[in-house]
User: Fold this.
Amino acid sequence: MTRARPRPTRRAAQGEFELIEAFTSALPLTGEGVVLGPGDDAALLRPPRGEELVATVDAVEEGVHFDGRFTPFDVGWKALAVNLSDLAAMGARPLWALVALGVPAGASAARLAGVARGLGACARRYGIAVAGGNVTRAPGLSLTVTVVGSAGRGKALQREGARPGDAVLVSGTLGEAALGLERGAPARFARRQRRPEPRLDLGRALVGLASAAIDVSDGLVQDLGHLCGASRVGASLRIAELPLSPAYLRRTAGRGDPWAAALSGGEDYELCVTVPPAKVRRALEAARRVGTPLCVVGTVTRARGIQVARPGGGHHPVTRGHDHLAQVRRLARGR
Assistant:
């Protein structure tokens, strides 16, 4: 961690250094390619030979991205996990993180230690080193995290590349994270909101199979729209094919639009990918190998925009026992 600028007074510096020590003690500070980690003016990092670097940055701010329902551990975990989800969408493997911590006056050491433990647990889970960062005073608690990963040259997944006729697939289940913000939500939903699990293994498994990819952070319809915009295509989604858990269906039963959270709720941090029909079976098999559910939910079209095919009425038969291979056979027949 580097010092904030301008240079603090001696008393302020002492407090700042204590914060840095308390925060970094819970983090993995070494890893692949880390020549020099926290403690100097900057980190020295050695890129993997023959690979391209993939970098992204995002911030979580108190009152905007989290509130009192989040434990300090949740805040630290999510600050890193949302960035790792971007790497997953590129088919990259994580290497290093840089963390800028904004600390309000009077913040307790216990709270900051909890944030560090959450961040450190996420970093260890996904094999990334925290190679540097900064601590400074701020009106409220905030973390700005930069992550750097790598991918084979010319192999990183991108939003551009989808073609008409490609299948649209999505990982995991949708909508639970959005419902996790509701009062009385099941603990599982709240955990999906507060501790997302980036699909890094799946992203790497789909390199060479997916024609385009994006992570679902703002909602399936909006994020698929970004992918289609970059690829200059459209897409048709079939609500009856959406991967929704039985718990989601129970929670939304009787609502005017039970699919709203799944289509536009956001915060799922699943992957949405497009795959040529000839490669869909291989993509589903790759997903099974890494232990992440993946299913076909629609088709890429020539007509711009996102069209959603809704059931004629009543609830829809999704989730358990859904035959994804039947979807593959329909795609192969051009249906």
About this structure: The two ends are 55 Å apart (CA to CA). The longest helix spans residues 72-89. The chain has eleven helices and twelve strands. Residues 2-14, 313-335 have pLDDT under 50 and may be disordered.
